[in-house]
Amino acid sequence: MHIHSNHTHISHTAKDSRALLIALTMTFGIFLTQIVGSYLSNSLALLSDAGHMLTDIGALLIAYAALKVFNAGKKGNNLLNTFTFGFKRIEVVAALINGVILFAMCGFLIYESILRLFESHEVHTQPMLITSIIGLIANMISAYMLHDSHHLSTKSAYLHVITDLLSSVAVIIGGILMYYTGFLWIDTILSAGISVFIIRSAIRLMKNAGIVLMDRAPEGISVIDIEQTLKSILGIEGVHDIHIWEISPGNISVSAHITTSLSETKPLLASAQSILKNKFNCEHITLQIEDRSFSEHNGCNHCSMHQD
After folding, report:
1. Out of 77, 85, 118, 240, which could bridge 303 as a Cys pair, Cβ 3.0 to 4.6 Å?
2. CATH number, span 9-213
3. For 28-62, what is each residue's pLDDT tens digit?
4. Is the pTM higher than 0.85?
């Protein structure tokens, strides 16, 4: 027996898509502005930030394309004949790619920061500051549009925008300090610090995406929890072959075999699906009803991790 609830997902997808498109437009504008600004100011930090923006443009495009493919999958019945779970995991794959990009980008920035400690170059701080302030304002607008995201791919894009925002702040602080002190190594230290912060966030993002892709049970739910909950229902004599996974973050699925000697199983199924939905917030529930004889003679009894 199967149940599925998804009545708010379409509006969330439309909202996230619109926010991503606005953020993508803003980020591309910042990228062009910083290219010009880095040329006028001779600022390597600003040029590196422009490269950061270029990476984020790719990340935002991936996230936007992921939502479009996911939405098309919900409408395309022919595709659903092959991709029977739809395209919900495309956003998880996109988030994993974004995490890898973030990790690689930060490694490059740390490498450049180390090299910059041993290099001397003149920086025109005024055009550098003007460009950075424009980028900061644009990033704040993009972050505001994405802050209430619902999809994992959009949340990862939000993380990219936040790193852009922090990077702009670092460049502004570095520019001000360099203007008054002449210490050109200041922006190098700030860039390295931000890169370490981004790497931590990227690792967390890759871990969350990997958990979903590996079909690990969601946090706080175990096979034992499902078995004990179902066996507490009057009429259920045994539970085995239990699987718990997330098709996408927050979209919890459960499947199990239930052993009963009752001839009328509709009330039992109704109770089982109700308790799983209410207690564990399961959206996709598949239960197979068996009597003990069927279970023992058709190879199902070996599935149980906890024999009666």
Report:
1. 240
2. 1.20.1510.10
3. 888 898 888 878 887 767 777 776 677 677 777 77
4. no
